[in-house]
Design goal:
single chain, alpha+beta, Nuclear Transport Factor 2, Chain: A, three-stranded antiparallel sheet, 2 domains
């Protein structure tokens, strides 16, 4: 009997943890009223000495991180506000 109650409790705890993780994952996405990522990429590509984009990722703190290299091989990391599309 105790083992059955323990299993039910453990499953309930796992379910709550999964629900919390799912809700957190839903919050860690760009806002629906934000700029298109392609608009932000276009801004980066127009920067002086731009060569190519190495990486783009959405940061769960609420901004896009863009890493690009310049013609003189410098690595530039920028953070962009997803709503305004402007660097932070």
């Amino acid at each position: 009997m105790r083992r059955g109650l323990f299993m039910i409790g453990a499953l309930a705890a796992l379910s709550l943890a999964s629900l919390a993780a799912a809700q957190e994952a839903e919050e860690a996405v760009p806002p629906p009223d934000g700029k298109l990522l392609s608009e932000i990429v276009a801004k980066v590509e127009k920067r002086d000495a731009f060569r190519y984009i190495d990486e783009i990722r959405w940061n769960s703190d609420g901004f896009y991180e863009v890493i690009y290299l310049t013609t003189d091989k410098a690595k530039v990391e920028m953070k962009f506000n997803p709503v305004t599309g402007e660097p932070q």
